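Lest this sound abstract, we let one protein speak, letters for residues, whole numbers for local backbone shapes, and leave readers to judge:
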Amino acid sequence: MSAGIKMHLPNLTLAQQQVEQYHRDGYLILDSLISSEVCDALKNRMSELIDGFDAESVRSIFTTNEQTRHTDQYFMDSAETISFFFEEEAFDESGNLKQSLSASINKVGHALHVKDDAFRQFSLATVWGNMLRQLGMAEPRAVQSMYIFKQPNIGGEVVCHQDSTFLYTRPMSVIGLWFAIEEATLENGCLWGVPQGHNVGLLKRFERVSPESIETKMVTLKEHQWHQYELVALPVSKGSLVILNGEFPHLSYANRSGKSRHAYALHAIDQACEYPKENWLQSNVNNGFQLFHL
């Protein structure tokens, strides 16, 4: 870590029951898996990155509503950079921040696992590659990373979605690793999901109009409506890991509490699968997607 902190990560072997539960329900929670010290080290490193960000250089706002209308070159370039995206409610009518910069960022992505030493050390650790192989991946690769703040009072809603919509492979292979850097509660915007909802299949694909274009579109593959009563809350303690099947439908509500909900999300695919050139995220960093340490 930047402050000389050594990354102590757990030794982990999933029980067969846990593997079966993941495939049955579409998700698996490993409670308090990461130490508080590692969580705090990642949080502190992110604070350093924000301190070095020139807020006047870009004003990109992240929203999951009408995604195609908010796609620009900055967003596309974030596949290979450490990019900063603001909360929708961060600015007043004059375009000025309503609170401090550190309380205004929605997320930072999408190449932390490549571009920052601390996040790379954590993200590409042997333990995660081995775990992904246990869950069925032949050649796991890290493709996308995001630090998500869920800011107090203005933390935006993330509508119900499936991660494979944005990181499509043939056949399906996406797995999301969602680490709770802070406690995630009903009050500050924990995840909600639809158990076994992944069995419905993928509903949409978010893709480029053409491989080289920054223009994007949302393609409907299947008509289906998730119902409120199907959702189950997934509150977790600090240091917990939520493993998400790429077709598992999940969301988080807006955070109107006075407490943030920091999380770090890492998405992996199986390199044995086809990764279409129409996917929005294309990376040439270090010759492609990242191998987990062996």
In short: Residues 66-70 have pLDDT under 50 and may be disordered. Helices lie at 16-25, 36-51, 73-77, 112-115, 117-123, 126-134. The radius of gyration is 18 Å.
